[in-house]
Design a protein that fits this description.
The structure holds two protein chains of two kinds.
Chain A: H1 3-6, H2 12-27, H3 34-56, H4 63-83, H5 85-110, H6 119-136, E1 138-140, E2 143-149, E3 154-156, H7 158-174, H8 180-199, H9 203-221, H10 224-244, H11 246-256, H12 267-278, H13 302-310, H14 312-335, H15 339-363, H16 381-407, H17 410-426
Antiparallel strand pairs in A: 1-2, 2-3
Chain B: H1 3-41, E1 45-49, E2 54-58, E3 61-65, E4 72-73, E5 84-89, E6 92-97, E7 103-105, E8 108-109, E9 114-116, E10 121-124, E11 127-133, H2 138-142
Parallel strand pairs in B: 3-4
Antiparallel strand pairs in B: 1-2, 1-11, 3-5, 5-6, 6-9, 7-8, 7-10, 10-11
Classes of the chains: A mainly alpha, B alpha+beta.
Amino acid sequence: MTKTDKNRLHLGKIAIFYIIGYVLLALRNPEFDTRAIFMCLGALLLLVSQYIAIRTFFIDINKPLLISVNMLCAVSLIMLYRLEVGLGVKQLIWIYLGMAVMFITIKLLTDERELEDKYWIYMGIALGLLLLSALFGSTIGGAQNWIKIQSLGISIQPSEFAKILIVFAISSVFCKKQKFSVYVIGVVFTMISILLLVLTRDLGAALLYFLVFLFIFYAAKSSAWLTLSAFAAFAVAAYISYFLFSHVQVRVDAWLNPWSDPNNRGYQIIQGLTSLVSGGAFGSGLGIGSPRYVPAYDTDYIFTAINEEMGTIMGILLIGLYVVIAYEGIKIAFKQKRSFYALISFGAVSLISIQTFIILGGILRVIPLTGITLPFVSYGGSSIIVSFILMGIIQAVGFRNAEVEIEGDFEEEFDEEVEDEIEEDEE
Amino acid sequence: MDIQAYSIIAMIGRYLLIIICFLVFVQAIMEIRKESQYNDSMDLASLKWSRKRMLFALGQENIVGRSTKCDVIIDMPTVRLRHFKIYLDCGEWIVVPCKYSEVKINKYIIEGKTQVTDGDKISIGKENLIFNITPDDEEELDD
């Protein structure tokens, strides 16, 4: 094996994927679509710029994660261009921004700086963002979680950005031996933020926040009884909320029996399931199916469109790529020796995995459907940028793992501990 | 292009897209395997803690002690937080006791750097560890 072989980034296959996809899309209409060719060039430029950035600054990047993310983005770009040309173009811009943000996140987190004790700041900003959407939010698709900026003509979703801060806040609360009062603050903070989300009807995000809290708590304290009792408390709260909130009732009823009201409540689920299976194992072919009957086909339900036109096998492969991300992320978290960084990378990977599970479970009727985006694939600026920030966190912790092996900087901490022990012995 | 001709191209294209996605997925798995193989090759030697029937793989540089930050954790009251360091230096395995800690190799107390060989018994506190060098099986694979 030569050295160049070892450092290959394997982005060539993804480039071929882009070329085939966009050439198909260009030939789809009676007249040749030159915009698709320009999009293809844009996507290839994305790969090239990534390659240059990695080769010059980030040579130790984790390759399985990089390959998986690029493949998911490729499927997303081609599918969105097929669904609506405008969305495909916008998504490419968002992915460019996301990649840049990912590299900036890696750079920021690999520098040495004090991040572990600032839980007040994380909690303050997170609650501020959530209050912002609760007070000034406008309702799109049943949840009051969008802030519209009229002058710029864009709308952002503060709860998406708040989830990164939630990971940081919970990790810094549980990362080392704190006072009991700090733990209480962490739990109360999580409860308040979940309550705010439930009040704004953003149930998917509420479920996500709670599960992430539980995952990080279990990873930090490894106390099975407390985790199980928290889960039991959540089950009770969910049962009560079923009777308190009408929209929860609607969702659960639509999940249990969508065919009782196929034109209204069960419409999205039934259309989604029909679209999911109509392509068969290999799909109907790009541009031949009719995935646009499903509501929210570009954001939450993009998985059904992919299944219909590219085939169920493609859907299974996408799930496989998410499994690769989860596996690598957890491996990186286990290798990290400083608990704060281990917890934030574990939190980031659990956010991506839980989010995937919630939306795919909702589409496949495994759990009640709650609107949440599929990371890296769904259309949406907030979602794409946040997913890339999470990926940046995981990659940054991977970089830190490599650094510790070379420098061995934890030995200094050791000496203090050894001295403490000696003092104890002398007493 | 008319619809019928396009549908034929799309039929071929869908297979190509699936094949490429599959190849990328396999590539990601292969990268993971490559990484773990690299890590396995780091396991050059091992320490056997006979009382608890535990086997610790050793890397290039290892710290043995009671603290959870050690590479090899021997959680016993007679073992210090950081007891000794064992590392590979030019093909030889060297044991260095940490400050204030006592290490015996084959029942003799050592002072400073000491070389250990395959099958040596390293005693720390009341615990005994057996040192074993992993046989080099890479050459056999090449043949």
